[in-house]
Amino acid sequence: MKILFIFKNENFLAPIGLCNISAVAVKEGHNTYLCEMNSENPLERIAALKPDIVAYSACTGEAKHYLKLNSMIKERFPAIFTIMGGPHPTFSPDVIKEGNLDAVCIGEGEGAFMELLGVIGEGKSPDGLPNIVTRNNKGKFAIRNLVEDLDSLPFPDYGLLYDNTPMGKYPLKNFIVSRGCAYDCTYCFNAAWRQIYKGHGTSVRRHSVDYAIDDIRKVKERWPLSNVKFYDDIFTYRADDWLEEFSRKYKKYIDLPFFILTRADLLTEDMVKLLKHAGCRTISMSIESGNTDIRNRMLKRGMSDEDIISAHRLCEKYGIHTFTNCIIGLPGTSIDNDIESIDLAIKARVTWVEFLIFHPYPRTELGQQSINTGLYNPDYKKMHTSYMHSSPLNCFNQKQKNAQMNLSVLGAVAVVLPRLRNLIVRHLIFWRHSRFFTLVYYSLKMYVLRKKIYVTRTTALESLRILARSLRQEWFRHENQTG
Question: The whole model's pTM is what?
């Protein structure tokens, strides 16, 4: 069968989920294709290709684009079977009622998608398939077991994206060597994920070192690669045998700078030494809130200021750059609380920081609390992939929301250039939100990321094009929101 994956590219990192699903489909003898919505007309592509299936993978904030398109597809090509997978349908399966979708896939999709292709090929109904929600089964479905042996899966079909989009030429590429997270942060979906799969396998799993190395080598041989970004929720929990083996083999066979994510309360000197030996350039550890009570009571992060400061200083000691996230505009908090996050990031001497305005995502604990307390009326069509959009919570007035939007761009400036801290937090964040602030933010971000966080080896002209594209996207989103 012909399967057309449709996605809307809004950054420079590949959606690995699409590559995974394409890989298992190709392994079973199906033909897969890609349509990127920004660069070609999906309806024209469908008319020319005549696919049997159109598939999407959507986060909350992206789904609205695909649902709108899917309504048009089903109107013109009613025989095509359409399905959406990814985080949004997993945690908001009622999306099956929108956009005239035929089905949505819940959770891990490899096994479910293969079984779906089988029944569609035989002309049978997919209504009773595990992990598949249709308009007929009314949300009642079974859950198949998680894939315990990740090495049993084929390597992701990166060619689907890298041969058909500019991402193939961009020398920063992302990889995932594990699945699952053991923590219960209230703004994240991992607790809900574990609840879905309760009794259906081990939540936290990872590939063998050899699989991970071979995965990167295959990409390195075919496309430009100067910096590896490991996008696992937590790359490593401890300095164990796996990390020691990885450190040796990555240095020997890959030998490129890389970026990982972990937690400040997990990082030890033994871990840092192994990562540094392997070539780790940047470690990302989220602060989330500079206020201890908010961080540990509301967000359930379970770490102290000292944990955060010492972990970042440990990276500094070994010449590893740091990247962190802070959430602002949390329910019932104040601008002063948000400024505490700036101050903690300055104390920790973070290399780069993102200040993300809180959005209550479906099935997250804090998202559900926001709904239950009347702070948010769920309307996921109004959500965006950019965290710089105005807070959707009704506990903030317009003046506060304006300050949050300014802090989302100027907070990073205050951390990187601490001498501007007082000017920013006492004056500039209370000015009217403007394109100039966004320009300052993206210009500084481009400089820090290119010089410190990543080794992308892009030309000055290519960097300017990336900057221009980022600005156009952000200004377009802002105008759509305020217009």
Answer: 0.94
Q: Which of 134, 6, 18 lies closest to 70 in space, CA to CA?
A: 6
Q: What is the pLDDT of residues 177-235, one digit of tens each?
A: 999 999 999 999 999 999 999 999 999 999 999 999 999 999 999 999 999 999 999 99
Just give the CATH number of 169-436. 3.20.20.70
Tracing tokens 């394109």 back to the chain, one arrives at 435
* Domain map (residue ranges) of the chain: 2-134, 169-436
Cα Rg of the chain, angstroms: 22
- 227-286, pLDDT tens digit by residue? 999 999 999 999 999 999 999 999 999 999 999 999 999 999 999 999 999 999 999 999
* CATH superfamily, region 2-134: Cobalamin-binding domain (3.40.50.280)
User: How many whole angstroms separate alpha carbon 395 and alpha carbon 1?
Assistant: 50
In 3D, which of 9, 48, 62, 52 has the Cα closest to residue 32?
52
Bridge partners of 172, per DSSP, are 227
CA neighbor of 273 nearest in space, from 286, 283, 265, 263: 283
Residue 360's alpha-carbon distances to 188, 331, 350, in angstroms, are 9, 10, 26
Instruction: Read off the tokens for 161.
Output: 């994206």
90 in Cβ contact with 106 (< 8 Å): yes
Residue 388 has pLDDT above 80, yes or no: no
> Quick check: 455 and 226 in contact, CB under 8 A?
yes
- Residue ranges in 157-265 assigned as alpha helix (H): 159-162, 190-196, 209-222, 241-253
